[in-house]
Design a protein that fits this description.
The structure is a single chain. It contains 10 helices and 11 strands. It is of the alpha/beta class. The chain has one domain: Alpha-Beta Complex (putative 2-phosphosulfolactate phosphatase), CATH 3.90.1560.10. Strands 1-7-2-6 form a 4-stranded parallel sheet, with helices on both faces. It is globular and about 50 Å long. The chain starts with 12 loop residues before the first strand and ends in a 5-residue tail after the last strand.
Length: 254
């Protein structure tokens, strides 16, 4: 079967899922926007808003070794703050981060998908928190280049079952749909349906994130404020772009 049939190649704005979607976007040479709403993207956006830097660490890498190599502070588990470290996947731990502070942050979804950064012309990370700001940046790039964009809903990793290991995460789908709703270039059917899902849910974002599977998981862990924070639409104007081994604030440069 011809793989091009599944590339959404006739459209400049595309929607895909997970690590496979990141690989496909890299093979096409697309701009890539990684959306992992609960919680990698929301943590990264919050850190960059306050002037920090986030170095994503893939699930396969040793976080301590990676952090030492790049001169970064190591993020810890949510429950290990503040006894064992200052930062975690909780976006709230980055509020007020000192400008220039670099944090190595590992996650099986958003951070691991970001390992494709060196294979794409631009990689951004986004969430509901900065959807319009990222879309505005993408709009400028699409207007001045021949590139296309893949908005990637990272999804959630789980124990393998008959359907594989990737769980569709509606919070990522809604974040991707929010970004797509602000774009005006041609959109694939997959992107249009995603945008429509966001448009129909826009007034219920807080409730949907609160009650979705990932929201329930974070609440059960004792982090309800992480869910509330991530559900805020366009709270920040920061646009995190990958430069080398870390995300920093996009300044319009190449």
């Amino acid at each position: 079967m011809n793989a091009d049939r599944f590339s959404q190649a006739s459209y400049r704005c595309r929607l895909d899922w997970g690590r496979g979607g990141a690989r496909r976007a890299a093979e096409r040479g697309d701009i890539l926007v990684v959306v992992d709403t609960l919680s990698f993207s929301s943590a990264t956006v919050t850190a960059i808003h306050y002037g920090g830097q986030i170095a994503p660490c893939s699930e396969q890498d040793d976080l301590a070794v990676f952090a030492q190599r790049i001169g970064a502070e190591t993020a810890v588990g949510r429950r290990q703050v503040p006894q064992h470290g200052r930062f975690s996947l909780s976006p709230l731990t980055y509020i007020g981060i000192a400008p220039g502070t670099r944090v190595a942050l590992r996650s099986p979804n958003g951070a691991t998908c970001s390992r494709y950064a060196h294979q794409v012309p631009f990689m951004f990370t986004a969430a509901l928190l900065n959807a319009q700001a990222v879309a505005d940046t993408i709009t400028q790039l699409l207007a001045t280049t021949a590139l296309s964009v893949t908005v990637l809903a990272a999804g959630e990793r789980r124990q393998p079952d008959e359907d594989g290991v990737l769980r569709v995460a509606i919070e990522d789908y809604l974040g991707a749909g929010a970004i797509l709703s602000y774009l005006r270039e041609t959109k694939s059917p997959e992107a249009l349906v995603c945008e429509t899902a966001f448009a129909g849910s826009r007034e219920m974002l807080s409730e949907l994130l609160w009650e979705c599977e990932s929201g329930h998981e974070l609440r059960a862990m004792g982090f309800p404020e992480d869910v509330r924070h991530a559900a805020q639409l366009n709270l920040y104007h920061a646009v995190p772009v990958m430069r080398g081994d870390h995300f920093e604030r996009f300044d319009g440069g190449s």
